[in-house]
Write a structure and sequence with these properties.
With 245 residues, this protein is an alpha/beta fold. It has 8 helices and 9 strands. Helix content is 36%, strand content 27%.
């Protein structure tokens, strides 16, 4: 078990779907109010070793993002067991969580303080983070004037510099311009090649999956239908989409 970073045992996640928001609100006080039950993940089991890089692939609505949220603890499973071994950092909603009235620099301090870093530790990291963002003088401007790409740069840089053992990424590679994306790619590739990190990526991009991952998990209708080397999983995904016909 010491070589396992992530393990899921018979994990099931369901959501209750209500007719409208009023019905959803009433359900807090009236548990038996009419609703439909949607099974998002159905009896999922797999393990990922330390240092592995794995792409989670599937159509929209197949349960990929829900799976990452369960691993991070943002959401809880209805049944089953999830075991993680190491410090986790997740890039799921990369543009969210900033205080828009504060500057980029101030948000760096806020974010890292929330992650348990001391002021001294943040001060030491600050130059590296600011340099990586490529935000220039905008680092001392309020985040509310940032474009979505600038916010993504700041968020991506913060999370990849937390020195995680496990990094979870959900479709977060459209950050900034081409030059900045290449910088992000190269940074992550070095971490993966040195086996310094366990990387799990949710992506629709075959190019990204092949670039970073040796293994893939294909999810369809809440179940893992293929767990194999990435080339095989992509082939199965293309079959699922009907692209090989």
């Amino acid at each position: 078990m010491n070589d396992i970073a992530i393990q899921l045992k018979n994990v099931t996640k369901t959501y209750n779907l209500y007719k409208n928001e009023k019905a959803r609100a009433l359900s807090i006080f009236m548990p038996n109010i009419s609703h439909k039950e949607k099974v998002v993940l159905d009896d999922i089991s797999f393990s990922i070793k330390k240092g592995e890089s794995v792409a989670i692939i599937g159509k929209n609505g197949s349960g990929k993002s829900t799976l990452l949220k369960l691993i991070t603890g943002v959401s809880e499973a209805n049944n089953g067991k999830i075991i993680t071994n190491g410090k986790i950092s997740s890039i799921i909603e990369i543009n969210s969580g900033f205080d828009l009235e504060f500057t980029g620099r101030e948000n760096i301090y806020i974010k890292y303080s929330m992650l348990g870093y001391s002021q001294k530790q943040i001060k030491e990291l600050e130059p590296k983070i600011i340099e990586f963002t490529d935000l220039g003088e905008y680092i001392d401007q309020p985040v509310k004037i940032y474009s979505s790409g600038m916010r993504a740069r700041l968020g991506f840089t913060i999370y990849i510099n937390t020195n995680p053992d496990i990094l979870l990424i959900d479709e977060a590679f459209s950050v900034g311009d081409l030059e900045f994306r290449e910088k992000c790619y190269n940074y992550l590739k070095k971490l993966v090649e040195k086996n310094k990190i366990t990387l799990v990526i949710v992506t629709h991009s075959e190019k990204i999956a092949l670039q970073f991952c040796k293994r893939g998990l294909l999810i369809s209708n809440g179940k893992i239908v293929c767990d194999d080397k990435i080339e095989t999983v992509i082939e199965k995904y293309r079959e699922l989409l009907g692209k090989n016909k």
